[in-house]
Each structure stands twice: as structure tokens, then as C-alpha cells.
């Protein structure tokens, strides 16, 4: 007896069938919740499942517990921050002022639009959060310090001091813009104006003076 084998094509996916969630989907949803609520307490399994239209079973397919999800979310934010910084630093063909503005835009400009870093700073008492913040911020300050030294031939200590001062100023401005926007002048809400001011501050100059 001869058996005839027929090739069976995969069953087509039903129209409207739900896409299988990935670990990255859950991690990004955790960051969304953190941004919305401003606290790690917003990262909870059942509310996230509802946000994603998923079940708790989907969560446990990817993560053993809530701590593992928080670690994945932090790792995702750190990787994205590092990638954006690398891209900003790599625009070496631009003049120093343009490179400096792009670097500042990456370091602090996003804080005016994306509250992730501000929310994480509020949770810096958590060791896992503090460790990630320290790595990300240190890389940013290193890059800005190196640019200042190359542009102005500043000593390491002076360049680092200027970088740190401007970084703190921009984060503080972003925090006020979100929390109590009425205390800031209108110009402080314009990103390009803020970047100009920050770059001049880094150079130790005032607006309107020649710059490299």
C-alpha cells in the first residue's frame, strides 16, 4: 500500500486575532505606566495586563515576577538612552556648536517631553534604579565633558563642572515645566531657546557673544 503525503499549509491567522505579546511589549508598558504615574508603584501586573488587553498568564510566560519586569524596563530605558547618546556623539562632521546642541538635546531636551528620567530620579532611593541612573548620567556627562575639552581646551575639572551645572539646570527646568509651569517665563518652555542658553552657559559666555 502506498501512502500519499499531502503538504498542509499553516492555518491562516484569523482576522482580528490578537498579536502575541513579547517581553519587550511588557517592558515598554511598564515604562508607560511609570511615565503616567511617576512612580514604580504603577508597575503592577494586573493593571498592566488590562492596559495591554492581556492576561496574567501572558506576563508569567515572560517574567518570573514583578521585579524581573522592572529590571527589564530599566534595561530597556538604559539601552535606548545609550543608543541615543552614541548617535548624538557620532555627528562629528558638524561644527562644535551644532554638536553641542545635539548632545544637549539628547541629554536633557527629552526630559522636557519624556518624563521617564524625572520619574526615575524620584525613585533613586531604590538601588536598582540608582545604579541605572548613575550609569546613564555618567555617560552623558563624560560625553559633554569631552566635547568641552575638545572645543575650549578646558582642564578636566572645569569642563566637568560646567557639564554638571548645565545638566542639573536643564533637569530642574524640565521638572518645573511639568510640575509648576506657571513659575517659568515663556522662553523657558521653548526647547530651542533653552538649548541656546545651555550651550552659552557651557561656553562660559552670555547670549549674543561669539561662540565656537
TrEMBL record:
Coiled-coil spans in chain: none
Pfam families: TetR_N
Gene3D superfamilies for the chain: Tetracycline Repressor, domain 2
PROSITE patterns, alphabetized: HTH_TETR_2
Keyword field: DNA-binding, Transcription, Transcription regulation
Molecular function terms, GO-annotated: DNA-binding transcription factor activity; transcription cis-regulatory region binding
PANTHER family from the UniProt entry: HTH-TYPE TRANSCRIPTIONAL REGULATOR BETI, HTH-TYPE TRANSCRIPTIONAL REGULATOR RUTR
Name the UniProt record assigns to this protein: TetR family transcriptional regulator
Keyword Transcription among record annotations: yes
InterPro entries in the cross-refs: Homeodomain-like_sf (IPR009057), HTH-type_TetR-like_transc_reg (IPR050109), HTH_TetR (IPR001647)
Species per Swiss-Prot/TrEMBL record: Streptomyces mimosae
Amino acid at each position: 500500500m502506498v501512502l500519499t503525503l499531502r503538504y498542509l499549509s499553516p492555518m491562516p491567522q484569523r482576522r482580528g486575532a490578537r498579536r502575541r505579546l513579547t517581553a519587550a511589549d511588557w517592558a515598554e508598558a511598564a515604562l508607560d505606566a511609570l511615565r503616567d504615574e511617576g512612580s514604580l508603584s504603577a508597575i503592577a501586573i494586573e493593571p498592566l495586563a488590562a492596559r495591554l488587553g492581556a492576561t496574567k498568564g501572558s506576563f508569567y510566560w515572560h517574567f518570573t515576577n514583578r521585579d524581573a519586569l522592572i529590571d527589564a524596563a530599566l534595561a530597556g530605558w538604559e539601552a535606548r538612552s545609550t543608543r541615543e547618546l552614541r548617535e548624538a556623539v557620532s555627528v562629528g562632521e558638524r561644527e562644535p556648536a551644532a554638536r553641542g546642541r545635539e548632545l544637549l538635546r539628547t541629554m536633557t531636551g527629552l526630559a522636557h517631553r519624556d518624563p521617564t528620567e524625572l520619574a526615575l530620579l524620584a525613585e533613586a532611593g531604590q538601588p536598582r534604579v540608582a545604579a541605572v541612573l548613575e550609569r546613564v548620567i555618567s555617560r552623558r556627562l563624560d560625553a559633554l565633558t569631552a566635547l568641552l575639552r575638545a572645543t575650549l581646551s578646558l582642564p578636566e575639572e572645569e569642563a566637568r563642572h560646567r557639564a554638571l551645572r548645565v545638566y542639573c539646570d536643564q533637569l530642574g527646568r524640565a521638572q518645573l515645566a511639568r510640575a509648576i509651569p506657571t513659575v517659568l517665563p515663556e522662553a523657558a518652555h521653548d526647547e530651542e531657546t533653552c538649548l541656546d542658553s545651555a550651550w552659552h552657559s557651557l561656553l562660559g559666555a552670555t547670549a549674543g557673544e561669539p561662540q565656537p
